[in-house]
Amino acid sequence: MSKPEKSVRQARRERTHTAIHTAALALVAEKGLKATTTDEIAAEAQVSPRTLFNYFAVKEDAVMGLRAPELTEQILEKDAARQHLDFFERLTHLLLDIIVASVDGPTYTQVQDLISRYPELRYRMRLHNLECEKTLQAFLLTVDWPAFRIAGRRGPFPFNTANTASAAGEEKASAAVHLATALLRHLDFVRGVPEEGERQQLVSEAVQTFRYLLRED
């Protein structure tokens, strides 16, 4: 019985998320971003202001339809198919998948269109992407780096059973996320995310470029 109940609850959450986002879009189109209030959005969506803030931290998030970033089972399943890839290529895909999933419904492209119309949203999106980076870093802090190195930096991530991160582990996790972020900036994905097939090729080429620049001749 638990699975159907969870499914119904999730469907209700999706409807509420969509209703709030749709109401925010309609009001902003009518009144503008600055003139629209969260109380008006809640009333239009037929929810309480408290419910609105259970879904969106601020008005701008409701307009863009942003979700709290998380490393979902679906993302981890996609990563399982990339365990043979270069570590940094794999990591860049992980970060990009977290970002894309956090703006799923609307799509990432629709969010970028909103930002082009309302440049005030750009700062909020930048903060949101930082939260996506923190989500990935938190995941990497659970990785057993010595065991991963022994495995040739391939295959499934081994996890630290002690559930504690060493200073060296924290440094590696932070550096790895910074590099993945740099790769995404190099690819200029803030302007839009290509389809999966093209995305794979672009990330692979970017990793090779970075490796070329970092090599010692």
From TrEMBL:
It comes from Rothia endophytica. It comes from the Bacteria. This is HTH tetR-type domain-containing protein. InterPro entries: Homeodomain-like_sf, HTH-type_TetR-like_transc_reg, HTH_TetR. Residues 37-56 bind DNA. Residues 14-74 form the HTH tetR-type domain. Keywords: DNA-binding, Transcription, Transcription regulation. The keyword Nucleotidyltransferase does not apply. It holds the Pfam family TetR_N.
